[in-house]
Amino acid sequence: MDGIRYETKGWVAVISLNRPEKHNAMDSEMSAAFANAIVRAQDDRRIRSILLRGEGKSFCSGRDTAALGVRPAGVSDFEHVSKSQSRKFNLIDSQKPVIAALRGHAVGGGFEIALHCDMRVASETARMSLPEIDHGIITDGGGSVITAALAGASRAKYMLMTCEAVGAQQALQWGLVDFVVPDEELDAFALDLATKVAARPPIHVAMAKMLIDGLQGESIRRGIREELIAITALYKTDDRQEAKAARAEKRKPEFKGS
């Protein structure tokens, strides 16, 4: 079981994160399967739009904490994060529009997946957060720069610096999501939106996406690369080690600023 379900509905590829018992937290196997599913949809000429959703109570709770910071022998933090970012750029750069349906929690890297999409639909109970600083690291998939581009710099700072979750209506007001619907209507609404987009001329849709993404695309890409440098440095800090120890010992961390 790789944690991903792939199905097609007309011109729409529906990719479901399918590890509900873990709130769709991503381990290495699931991350690889997700990347493969995105490529599969991009390469299928019958597919004109992509819908991302999560099974169970949450969209995605981010990286599985059991796999957080785990590296194959000899792989540096820089190399590991750089490869991860390459997969994220593949989603960001998709010529086929991608829509996210957010139910429950979208946390850290899970929220970043949603931020990589072209449109976001949230259920009324959805909650979004970027808690990386509490783990002694920082966002590495554009959480800082895309949030700032959508919601403004001060709101991005609030989310990153407090690690507090934002509810669906607040996210709608801030521009982080585009629609909020009742929980029971989420899947149907998001599929209908993806189907409407898929019904339009695909080359025209791809051109529209390219033109609009060009407004801030280069600054976002540069920001993501700067996140790579930042997180590589933060992995070596004493506060990162304290965050890991505190989580393992189930206690509140005592950060020292070193």
Automatic annotation (TrEMBL):
Protein's UniProt name: Response regulator receiver protein
Matches recorded under Gene3D superfamilies: 2-enoyl-CoA Hydratase, Chain A, domain 1
Entry's family note: Belongs to the enoyl-CoA hydratase/isomerase family.
Pfam families on file: ECH_1 (PF00378)
Organism lineage string: Bacteria, Pseudomonadati, Pseudomonadota, Alphaproteobacteria, Hyphomonadales
GO molecular function, one term: catalytic activity
GO terms of biological process kind: fatty acid beta-oxidation
InterPro entries registered for this protein in UniProt: ClpP/crotonase-like_dom_sf, Enoyl-CoA_hyd/isom_CS, Enoyl-CoA_hydra/iso
SUPFAM superfamilies, alphabetized: ClpP/crotonase
Matches recorded under CDD domains: crotonase-like
